[in-house]
Request: fold
Amino acid sequence: MQRFWLFKSEPDTFSIQSLAASKGKKTSWEGVRNYQARNMLRDDIQRGDGVLFYHSNTDPLAIAGTAEVVKSGYPDHFALQPDHKYFDEAASPEKPIWYMVDIKLVRIFKQPVTRAMLAEHPVTSKMVVMQKGSRLSIQPVTPAEWHAVHELAGIA
DNA sequence: GCCAACGTTGGC
DNA sequence: GCCAACGTTGGC
Reply:
């Protein structure tokens, strides 16, 4: 069964435009170092799932478009590379600790769905990303929320 | 730039 | 196992 997720990214680090410019419009989603998010990457997120691509720490804050999971959870090998910024000395090939998935761009919204728009809508205003103190970089999204975001983006 | 919320660390 | 200190996230 297809499920839906929201992935946060700071556009200064990696934007949806970066994804569009990537080879095959695909990227691995490495560097998640939070156990709750790790569990979703490792256990729950499957090939074919939908991803809302959210731009955080920027202006305007917005869902910039969507992507599709093309590879489900596998070990984040960047944690094993001593010179890499995502290195974790506690990780090993036997116990990788951290996981990542691969995603592929579906579309960049012509009209990004801003946080202000999300806040105005009865369904999207309840999304995890809208809750105060919500810091998870990987979040579940309900089918109703997924649908409402597409309506706000002008996509039937 | 500020600061609240949250996760992690480490002393006890 | 508790909890204070600390670092990070991320909206405003």
Summary: The domain at 4-152 of chain A is CATH 3.10.590.10 (ph1033 like fold). Chain A has a mean pLDDT of 94. The radius of gyration of chain A is 15 Å. The beta strands of chain A are 4-9, 26-28, 50-55, 62-75, 99-114, 138-141.
